[in-house]
Every structure is written in structure tokens, then in C-alpha cells.
Amino acid sequence: MPSTARTSVSVPLPKPGSQSALRERNQQRVIAALMSGGPRTQAELARATGLSTATVSNIVKSMSTTGIVSTAPTTSSGRRALSVILNDNGQVAAGIDIGRRHLRVVLASPNYRVLQEASVPLPLGHSAQDGLGAASDLLDTLLENGGISRAALLGAGIGIPGPIDRRSGTVVQGAILPEWVGINIHETFGERLGIPVFIDNDANLGALAQVTWGPHSAVDNLMFIKVGSGIGSGLVLNGALFYGHVGITGELGHTTINEHGLICRCGNRGCLETVASTSTMIELLGRGGSDSVDTRRIIDRALTGDTATLRVIDDAGVAIGRALAHMANLVNPETIVVGGPLTDLGEILLGPIRRGLARHAVPIIGETTTVCMSSLGDRAEALGGAAVVLAQSGLSPALIGSS
């Protein structure tokens, strides 16, 4: 279970350095200690967090009043003490990942336990209403399967594969789902689901999941890259998700790789997506063949050593590494995590990515940047969505950063 988690959400936040911000950070430190170590006495919490016993006592009293924790008499070193226990109160957070061809929903408790999870296919070119209907139906099914009341839902974190204007919550031009462009996801999903919703780009949620659910909770500077029908990235910089001016960041797939290449869906020519997305791989490997090709078939062929498949993956990986090098030269991440539907390829994809990175990055950056595959597979984006809800509810150890 991770000891820290990081996120940034689209709500008014305490000003850095204010008393409310300090109280929030201290509360999150106490919650982090409880999540990583289980029930503890107030004295143990003071030692684990570095806070004074008086500060811990005040925090525990406040959280007990709001139901975040409960306390029970115990003994410590032969003396009477209070054991502090993190509650989940039966509450759950939903994470929803909507892709070009898939939908995944997870239900998680505040102590980061996945309670229910399922995925279903979506038709290519589905509308926002179709995606919303499928998400609502699958959410209802998981609640019923888990015997969970809808009233227990804290909210839903929803990932969309495309740029989102954080000022308005609308999907903007360039999304993998062109049918969704101009849709206000906050209003559309909020009205249908009847719960608080938090919208983000799926790659941002994937990055959040790596430092929340994955093994990278201690990494302050991380890049997550999702290789799928599109190629996007999420950035954790100095311990918080980075959103830039209006929220359009990490559009790695639209980095120009070949200025004389194919026209991209964004209108430019020779973008990374035109040479390294799963859609491009499927098209290349499907030429002249009678068998249908999908991402699972690509993985199976690669694992059995098919020469053509390995060449396509190698070319794609080197191109991805080249694009990552440009970003790494700018932000100098400690770790780059590769996610998406091709994670089962492991070193078959990571090898060429590392070569491309080493070839085009400043040498010391190429040498000191760790490139690894996501341990969360295709669950990362949905898990990141659940983490956003828990952070916003004050029930996760989130270090909330400004965008």
C-alpha cells in the first residue's frame, strides 16, 4: 500500500502557505501513516509523521468528528493510549476509463482496496451518450454485484483519451474520440450519474495511478506514456500533476517525427501517432493478410518471434524513445513509465524505447532516467480516476498541487 499519493483536481484549493493548507498537509501526513502502517496510537503517529503530539491530537480529534477515523482505548508501553483507525465508512470511489474501443470501471475503498472491477468493449466511433450510458450501466452492475448502495459513492473520476480544457471541462479538438469534441463532460456525466464527477485526460490519471497505486510513490518527477490508439503522456513534476495553462499538456503523440510523413488526425504531418500508435501497427501488419489483427494478436505474434511484428514494434519503440528524449531534455524526469494495451510486450517494446531515448537525449539524462513498464497494465487510468475521488474527499493521503 503506498505511503503517499499525489493529484491535482479542478476545485478551489487552499493557498500555499496558508493555515488551511498547512492543516490539510498535516492531516494528509497522518492519513498516510495510517494507510501505510495500519492503526496506530497518537504517539506513534507523531513519531511517524514528525508532527508534535499536540498537533496530532488536534488532527485526530477533527478527523474523528468528520468520521474519517475512529479511536479506541489501548495500551502502549504499559500506559493507556488511544488507537487511531482509518475508517472507510462503507464509502467507495469509482474510477471510469473510457477509451476508443473499451470501457473500464473500478470501485475502490478509501484504504485503496479494489472492491469491484469490470471492462466491456465499446463500438468504434461511439458517441458521448453511448459511452455515458455504458458507463452508467456498468457502474450499476458493479454496485449490485458488490452489494454496495449508490449512496455510498463518493464520486467518479473519469478519464478521456484526449485533451480537456480544464476551464470548461470540455473535450477539445484532437481527441481520439472526435464524436466527443465540444461535450461538457462535467455536466453530461454529472447529471446522468447523479454524483460528483472529476474529469481528466486518461494519461494524467495513468500518471497519478503510478504514484498512488504503483511502486513509484517516492518519485517526485515521473512521466507516464500511454501507447494505444493515440499516444499521450501525463507528467508528475515536483510531486504534483502538471497541467500547464489551460490543461493541454503531454500531447506526445503529436510530436513531429517525420516532417514528410503522413497527415495526422490533428492536421499536422508526420506526428508520432502516425508511426507508433497501435492503430498504425494494426494497419501495417494487416496489409495483404487474411487474418484480422488487433493488439492482442500483435502481442502474441511478437512473443512467438514473428519477424515482421518485431520490426514494426522496434520502429515504433525507437520513434517513441526519440519523442520522449525531447520531453526528458526539458523536464529531466527520474522515471518514465510505459502503459497502455501493449504492456505485456515487456522488453520487446522497452528495449527500442530505451535506444531511442539514449540516442536523442542529453547523455546524462539518458543514462539516469529509468524506463519501465507499468505494473498496473490497462487498469492504470481507472485506478487513477478512483484516486482523484479519494483525494478530493479528503480520504486519501494526497499532496494536492496547483495546476
From TrEMBL:
Q: Where is this region: Disordered?
A: 1-24
Q: Which InterPro entries match?
A: ArsR-like_HTH, ATPase_NBD, HTH_MarR-typ, ROK, ROK_cs, WH-like_DNA-bd_sf, WH_DNA-bd_sf
* Alphabetized GO MF terms: DNA-binding transcription factor activity
Q: Which PROSITE patterns match?
A: ROK
Annotated ranges, domain HTH marR-type: 26-80
Name of the featured protein: ROK family transcriptional regulator
CDD domains to which the protein is assigned, alphabetical: ASKHA_ATPase_ROK_BsXylR-like, HTH_ARSR
Q: For bias kind Polar residues, which ranges apply? A: 1-10
Q: Which domain of life is it from?
A: Bacteria
**What is the native source organism of this protein?**
Arthrobacter pityocampae
Its family remark reads: Belongs to the ROK (NagC/XylR) family.
PANTHER family assigned: GLUCOKINASE, ROK (REPRESSOR, ORF, KINASE) FAMILY
